[in-house]
Amino acid sequence: MDQAKLEEFLSTVVGDLGAATSAVLVRIGDRLGLYKALAGAAAGGLTPTELADRTGTAERYIREWLANQAAGGYVTYDATTGRYELPEEQALVLADETSPVLMQGGFDMVGTYFADETKLTDAFRTGAGVGWHEHDSSLYPACERFFRPLYRGSLLSDWIPALDGVEDRLRTGIAVADVGCGFGTSTIELALAYPASTFTGFDYHDASIAAARKAAAEAGVADRVTFEVAGAADFPGTYDLVCHFDSLHDMGDPVGAARHTRQALAEGGTWLLVEPNAADTYDGAPNPIARVFYAGSTLLCTPSALAQNGPHALGNQVGEARWRPLLAEAGFTHLRRAAETPFNLVFELR
What we know:
By secondary structure, this protein is α/β, with parallel strands linked by helices. Helices cover 51% and strands 15% of the residues. It folds into two domains: 3-94, Arc Repressor Mutant, subunit A, CATH 1.10.10.10; 104-349, Rossmann fold (3-Layer(aba) Sandwich).
């Protein structure tokens, strides 16, 4: 046995254990407004007593919470003043709901994984799927919160402009379908940006559709946005633009869904397909982003596909090389990688 390797691995595991246990404290800090209070403090930060007073919390708990956050590098501590500060960079990730890099939804997602632990453990034993609708109800708002910053940060500024001629058509007025829309964040963002166009969001999960309808009304776009309960292989209508955001890989028959999308496209229409950014081959090398993706793939995406009893259970790490033959099988002759982020691949199909 290599003692140095053992110690190195133990160090890695202790780091992971600290991250896992601290995730609960991150969620508590989010729920109680601790990060927002720190972000709004004057330069120099706050003492535990000041933070507790601002947030209506107990100083003794806040003292321990701040020490944990400083130990993890989430906040900084000045030993001479006894004050804690949330730097601007950390605030964008932890406290700013408008930030394109807000990650609090990711911590919410982690909480849902533990809520479903028993159900997923049983699925490992039996090989059965776990449908999207079968997860703990906390999953759906967590998922919306996780993806919202990604879409708001890239959809209008990068993804739509990267499509050939689509933005001009959206400004003039076209019919758009958002398939697997969830709570409708992407649909509503598009509707706010392109008021001349009409939008229909589809999802088989009726509770998500109800939430999407409420969100559209609150955003003032219900006059040009509708949400309907329908699956990816049977949604009705013909559209100039069809969008799938991080959903096709969840389907047991992605080829069938793609084939239906092709039939739903009007003459000259475009399919915007957004998928997680994945390498074409898995090399097994340590990769923190891939680690997060594969966790989600194991706990959400693969179980969802298996529950549909289709010919595929792709998981979320598919890669362009694997997508191309599947989409060609569905009848698409044009596939172009239009854009890319560290988290997403964006394809234009016709």
